[in-house]
Design brief:
Elements: E1 5-8, H1 14-24, H2 34-43, E2 49-54, E3 57-66, E4 71-78, H3 87-101, E5 107-108, H4 116-124
Parallel strand pairs: 4-5
Antiparallel strand pairs: 1-2, 2-3, 3-4
Amino acid sequence: MKAWTIVKYAERHFDGVAALWQEAFPNPQPWNAPEVTIPAKLAIQPDLFLVAIDGDQIIGSILAGYDGHRGWLYAVAVLKTHQRRGVGSALVSEGERHLVELGCVKINLQIQSTNASVTEFYRRLGYELEERVSMGKRLGRFA
């Protein structure tokens, strides 16, 4: 029986999410820091920011987004002490459910090419490698 649950992010979760992301995504770029990412997500589609909690501890997170055409998954993370217990799969499934409710028919995500274990995790969940080139452009204060 699982002891953890998935809930919508609330302000009281900030410190736990920041600690989780520090473990999962050490040395973030300035635009990926929790103090930048979290307020930006709360301003747009805050219902698509979910956390897994075990008691009072944040053990996982997922951010999803939908632009009316495609959905995206971001910041899928699970504390190392809670990995391989179904937390990540449940977070992705819940994120997918929310996106489908919005009318989404395709979900994209990006993984660093050197992260084979995460690639395999998503393959087990039905995601496929696509022949695409990922490009980006920084704007505003992060340009």
